[in-house]
Amino acid sequence: MARFEEGRSISCPPLFEGEAYSQWSNVMKYFIQAQDFELWDIIEEGYTEAPKKKKKQMSENDTKAKLNSRAMHILLCGLNEEVSKKVSTCKRAKRNVGEA
Fold it and tell me: Does 3 have pLDDT greater than 70?
């Protein structure tokens, strides 16, 4: 009879501990997309706070701000303490060129 080991949790992001980044990032991408596909869009495209003008624009900006916060939370939960300290001051899920 086959014996199965415990798999990864579908409710907790994969933990990055400083090694095998490409494997972790691939698993994290699918984890985030499974939570909400628009979250991955925020990570890839970025989020810039728009000036508040009209109600419709405010609503769209608020939605993107919430998605950015959710994406940041998932990403930070997927990092060990040492790696998390290095990126915990970031305000956006998308990494800009030149950022550490």
Answer: no
